Amino acid sequence: MKDYIVAIPARYASTRFPGKPLVLVGGIPMIKRVCMQALKSNAKSVVACVDDQRVAKVLENMDGTCVCMTSKDCACGTDRIASMIKTMNIDPETVIVNVQGDEPLINPEHIEQVASLLESSGCDMATLCFEIDNVKDVFDPNCVKVVFDRNSKALYFSRAPIPYERDNFRNKEITDISELMHKHYHHIGIYAYRAKTVLSYAAMAQSSLEVSESLEQLRLMQHGYTIAVAPTSNPPETGVDTQEDLDRINAILDLKNS
Which domains are assigned to the chain? Predict the structure, then answer.
């Protein structure tokens, strides 16, 4: 599938990591590294949705990438993409893949997969996941979990363990993945949707589930929108939220280049 746009929202004044889009990843500013990975997909264009001229400057003259300035007041990445859609007058039916601006090792295959999933599923949004193989992640609130039905439509996303194995969890401390009764899936924060869905999302008030879990995709679900979910067998490297994450990503790149 080639008729889609990759949108990369990036906020300069990150609460946990100020100036994050400009930190060096393998000697390259992170926002540029993310764009480089997105350009390896079959997207017809890559748009960086940024809120600071310093970030825009590092993307000047980058072939295949354009920059859209957005407000510093955007509450989340999806709102930033909605602003871009309005500014650039994007057709409502255009498929957009949301790649977060702190994913410097984003896999182009995942971009292709989620765009194709949106088309084939007929859902309002599509996203990916992978099977958890570390029991610690099942109980880690920073690891977002997802459960889905037999038609691969999301039933719920949560920071809590889902499904909650009542009899299993209450009777003993789970220390190994083999002790679980069900498969548990880690949600990957990449989304595909049409421009009109993004605009609808931005016009909605925050939902109670979204606020409770601090997961923006629950806003769509609580308003009756459908989300397709597909597992991938090649889990991505996690993004950069802290200096420790950045050090880990740079170590991975150093190893690849050695």
Answer: 4-234 (3.90.550.10)
